[in-house]
Amino acid sequence: MTQAAALPETGGARPSPLRASNPLTRLLGDLRGRMFGTRRDALLSLAVLAILGSIASAILPWALVNATWTGASRADCTGGGACWAFVASKAPQFIYGFYPPLERWRPDIAFSLLLVGLVWLMVPRIPGKAYAIAFIALVLPITTFLLLRGGFAGLPLVPSDQWGGFMLTMILAVSGITFSLPFGVVFALGRQSKLPLIRWFCVGFIELCRGVPFLTVLFMAIVMLPFFLPPGTKPDPLALAVGGIIFYEAAYMAEVVRGGLQAVPKGQYEAAMAIGFGYWRTMLHIILPQAVRKVVPGVVNTTISLLKNTTLVMVVGLFDLLNIVSAGVSDPLWAGSQAEGYFIVGLVFWLMSFGLSCYSRAIEAGFARADRS
Amino acid sequence: MTPPLIRLANLNKWYSDFHVLKDIDLEVRQGERIVVCGPSGSGKSTMIRCINGLEAYEQGAITVGGELVAQNDDNIEKIRQRVGMVFQNFNLFPHLSILDNLTLGPIKLKHVPRAAAEARAMELLERVHIGHQARKFPNQLSGGQQQRVAIARALAMDPDVMLFDEPTSALDPEMVKEVLDVMIELARTGMTMICVTHEMGFARAVADRVVFMADGAIAEVGGPDAFFSAPKTERARQFIQQVIH
Amino acid sequence: MTISVPDHPQRSPLGRRRILGWLYQGLLVAGVALIAYVAIGNLYANLAARGLKLGFDFLWQEAGFEIAFHLIPYTASDNYWRVFLIGITNTLLVTVLAIAASTVLGFAIGIAQLSSNWTVSRAARIYVEVVRNLPQLLHILIWYNVALRALPPPRAAHSLGDAAYLSNRGIYIPSLTTDRPGLLALSILLALILALVLFRSLTSYAERTGRTVNAWLPAFAVLVALPALAIVLSGAQVSFSVPHLRGFNFVGGWVIVPEVVALVLAMAIYNAAFIGELVRASIESVNKGQREASAAIGFGWWQTLRFIVIPQAVRVLLPPLSNQYLNILKGSSLAVAIGYPDLVGVFTGISINQTGRAIEIVAMTMGVYLAISLLIGALINLFNRMTRIVER
């Protein structure tokens, strides 16, 4: 025997009840190890839990326990909690803006069509994706515009300055995404082009849009652009804003698409050329289909940021969801309801954004699964 | 009889439910060359990564030069300075030149003056026949060259024992020989070595003992000639047939 | 790497593809020219109808409106060029503060996500997922209209040691003024440079000789001693002013107005979520083998971070981080929603209303942002080229 000292048992691994048969106990034990394994960890965990706990104990009683859910004005909201009566009573305005109440069935139809189109496009199992795209890109904008505006066949005219709220946010976002993506593809291809004039034009456009704040692009569209239109035309501010959104986001989409194009291995171009495909055929049949997969996360990210950017139209006087809630707060009956208003707006945006990013992750996982099988 | 340099006693490790190392007992004396082989998934890499604390273990004990190896201990870094390791993927530091790769450890950990560290580094680089590349960067070298640099980097810390984790498995066939030659030269200088490898020719040339592992346990130990010509277990026999084709 | 379909070597310059190429370009030029022709025609017609002319002479007109917050002196009788400068300085102030705050917070969030402590990493993850999915404008409005409004009036302000105060009129902090501000600034700058040089030479001396030398203490001493020495030797007057309540408000000290506080807080919190993700991704991009090799040599956690992980992570981190900083600059334009007089608010907003010179003003505003973006972009390219990991 050479070593006199007894050899202690473990080699520094955290004690873990590994061979527990119950997966729940195993999970809990593992968690406990990672939260409270060392003394420093335990202190940190307790500190973080304390902070989270104090935040929750500040918000939850306000939002749920002491809240008032019905009422006709702020004065009815006693109890020190959230005044959800504000949201309840203003809800139609938050959703439809200043759209005449009798005509609200028209946005309802338009929204249902949008939902149909989105489900058709986004759920993987439903076939005919190309038709879904055509539906969303062509049929939907035209029908929505005609339906909402009216002015024919007995439908009363509802000018766009009465469109507002969540409905307006959706119009801005959906038209923004629908049109900025194809423009983005065009600019991305143009940026790769060997023809110098086309390349410089595209590079210049992209760098310009990416170098300036979105707000200045909106100002440019709403304040500066009318100067370049024939005198006497009164352009629709909504149309100008949508135009601004489309062009600004097209530049960002272009960069995302460019990244996707560059991620396609060079060998694919060579293989396509070896078959005899020209530039357009190569792009259409070989490159773009492969780039699509690499591009999904970036496109969804740009979509989320586009969605968040729609709130900026508030500054140029359009009444999107955020602005109409702010306007609702300034109603003397409900003065002081900012917290409730912003909470609802935040909730809506968060659900949409987080939902989109979960969808993107699911699509990527689906691609990865398809690869492995 | 001198105490063993490295001692694994009743070593057991689990990944969750999976028992990856089962009752490993092994002693390595100073100057011994051990080759560890076996089918993939047999736990060979895991075992030698436990020796320098890159993997933790749940049961048993590993001692290096009499000191206990425990991953979260304060003295694990001192132990690692005496154990050199060469990885399958070289793991050279790409943002440093070859010379700086070798001198970083001695300068920062052993407080060797820069000039002395660089002189020793050049000496080691010459030994692995790559002295002329000292100012280059890792990504400018071929795989075989990078692995030779990795060996020199491990030697730069003056270790008592060198661990090799499948050093040639990631190399193109024509580069395997240059790395094995360096390892054989190293063995001839009397360095204690534990190599996980599939290169049976190397085992035959250099090993004092061959440790055959299967399913997380040591299945057979023996001198190389005895092991290759007359393996005692069926598992070992199958393995040798598959490897020598 | 430009992906372009390579040419066949045998094609002659007058081949079909070339002609098509010229055709496309010609179409583009013709299209742009046509649109420009029509647009400019309309422009002149519209300008004539309003009695305006294109030109930058309006910049020297008197502005005639007040601006609540300005870093350089301004009165209503100053001209629009001054207004332009005020806008730029106000924008830069908020941007720089927000960048500093969001960087510190962002690094903390990013590193927290990599922590082995489950609570800490989950909490950081929740922070990122909640914060970044809310619009930045909403963040700003919440901080300004909800959080800051909830602060007490100056008479009941929260005090920090009787030297600093928190109220709904802003944050009041003690101020340091001197009659030789240039000297003070210069001595601080000099001290920074000297301290840095001293630090570098001490550490390389330690490396060369192998002795352990504490480089921090001497460097810190220089940093503090030099400005102090400069003040004492030059006889400059340095006065310290602590805010105190007089009537309904505070006098003395410096005040950070609520708009700035709300903007900086909101932008810091929002952008920290994104910066955290960048930091996390950059550290994760350094592959595990690097950490193992470093550990195998005997480096501890901090040394591995310092010599191996951070140098490699920084190369991956800096380009998208600088992009995020540009986003912060562009995001500062949201200040107009809470009435803070940044460049967009005071120039593209008020000034266009007053002068009607939309074209010139929008162009100037965009020009400023574009110039800064291109400058930062060029610097990043330079950085990339200088620190490229050398490959074959």
TrEMBL record, chain B:
It comes from Bosea rubneri. The keyword Transport applies. GO terms for molecular function: ATP binding. Gene3D superfamilies: P-loop containing nucleotide triphosphate hydrolases (3.40.50.300). This is Amino acid ABC transporter ATP-binding protein. Belongs to the ABC transporter superfamily. The keyword Nucleotide-binding applies. Residues 6-240 form the ABC transporter domain. It comes from the Bacteria. Pfam families: ABC_tran. CDD domains: ABC_HisP_GlnQ (cd03262).
